[in-house]
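Case study.
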Amino acid sequence: MSGVLAAVIGLVVFGLGYRYYSKFVAEKIFRLDPNYVTPAHKYKDGVDFVPTNKFVLWGHHFTSVAGAAPILGPAIAVYWGWLPALLWVVLGTVFAAGVHDFGTLVLSVRNKGQSIGTLADKLIGQRAKMLFLFIILILVLMVNAVFAWVIANLFVSYPASVLPVFIQIPLAIWIGRAVYKRKTKMLGPSLAALGVMYLFAIISSKWGILQIDLVQYMGGEGSAGLFGLGAVNSAFLIWIVILMAYVYIASTIPVWKLLQPRDFINSHQLVVGLAILYLGLLFTNPEITAPITNPGADTSWFPLLFITVACGAISGFHGLVSSGTSSKQLNRETDARFVGYFGAVGEGSLALISILAVVTFFGSTDEFLATYSSFQAANASGLNVFVEGASALATGLMIPPDIAGTIVSVIIVSFAATTLDTAVRMMRYIISELGVEYNVPALSKKHVATSVAVISSTILVLLPEGSKGFGSGGYLLWPLFGTSNQLLAGISLLLLSIWLKRRGSNYLITLIPMIFLMFMTLWAMFQKVIFEWSWLGSDPKMLLFVLGAIIFVFAVWIVLTAFSALTKGMETTDDLDKKVK
Amino acid sequence: MFEQLKKLAAFYEEVLTMPHRQEIARELRDQDDLFLLLLYSEMLGIPNPVYYYTLELYPYMIEEFHDWHLRMGMAKSPLTGIRCC
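After joint prediction, the assembly is written out as follows.
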């Protein structure tokens, strides 16, 4: 099958979903009212509550939710063949992610622009809020560990990408100073910085001396490295320590100094990345060489597929963005359909092209099966295959493969680094909040909370041992990341169902995806925790077992609490709305 | 054509600038809040050596006072002299 045809089919289904399904949900279920006074108008303060044009808000929402996760998940999930991954991304976006992102936005708008965590407290109770906070804490912990591994892995595999990524830091600091001290505009300097980064990517791809290859510096793959570890393990260890030291600094200094200007440059990279991939696909029109399904898979797709592809099919993190920032800026309630649902479609498009970049890359089905020989091999090499596949697509735009490889890896590292910075900052806030809640004042101090966040993330990424030994096993945490993300989405859908029930609306459109998602996630987690990681399992791993068991218990607890709230039908319907009005 | 491209560039810039402008506004508001706290310090029990002058500013600050005490986590006005809500 042609890659372009698959992309067209996927995009057409997204389009139909937006055109018809989201319209039905907006008019018949959420009953959006164009005259409803949104929090952006009601509490307008020029800071958090600002009525914003829907296209601008969509752009902001999309750049906030899109990152490295919708690339990595699909690149692993194609192990079961291209059709299951494609179907889950397309149908998940249309029936689950779209409704989830759109719904959390509407729920928050109808409740003073409050975040999902606060709404959990209102709709279910105080205990639910604390459980919710713990699940978010685990999610960001997983994000830190997984993305630190992603960056270290790409630095080891693509040493040419190190220099362009690190050159971004002084450039961002310079832009930050130029904008805030001299009041220059950010667009021009940030585009120039992007040009400089890509120039360095080209130069370092061509000149080996500019490639910071730690493995070669220590004498090659077979050589001894630090503390009796091999060269590859030592390279992982060094990069992870450097990254963690960097995120500590980045997440404690004021945001305008580094984070904001760097985000600005990275937003351009999202556009560049999508343009390279979709135009490359159009011009090269490659055939899909991966099998439709993989009957010889050593791990069943059911239910693991649904936690392997989290972002791109449905993601709880989007609900945090929808209810945290976008809901405070919505100009009219009816704009929620475009911002929320179409935001999910944007993320789905990124996941779709990630699948196509991987499944069109191989020369034959046998080559694909040789690389994706086992689920563990798919986890370990999925990301690198995506970089190779994306480079192959970029040749359609006359970009040489070695330069394209460096640029694609720079783009992914930049996405992952942005997520890492934000996640560490977020973790710091949550630890402080928990410190206040449980009377541990020391935890509310900035440097204590950041140290706890950084040290726990470093330990977590270093502990699992991967195919390349110590430090290289961060990908083993991917199912835990997928699980916590999906659980968050499931809980948000449950909150939406409770809210819709109390309003007297048909709540099946959120309840069905919620039950599906919760069942798949809990079943997958149960299988992993008991049959794989526990002492009874095939591959005992104590760390993963403990973490998985904690997530599982929290999830069951919150689901039971929420279900009792759903069946009890506390308060009268629409009570929260009335309070707002 | 050129006009449309300019519009597109302006839209793109607006999308990217929005969160950054918001952050600056938040920083400014935090500074304003601190300033307001200094002005009201006498009523909160903190000695204010220049109360004679700051007293004259009160009429200008009444409208902002309501938003301020809400942001500070006080649902009702903490001052009996100012009954904004």
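Observations recorded in class. The interface with chain B takes residues 45-48, 50, 52-53, 55-56, 59-60, 63-64, 179-180, 185-187, 190, 255-256, 260, 263-264, 267, 325 of chain A (CB under 8 Å). The first helix of chain A runs from residue 3 to 29. We will return to this complex in the next lecture.
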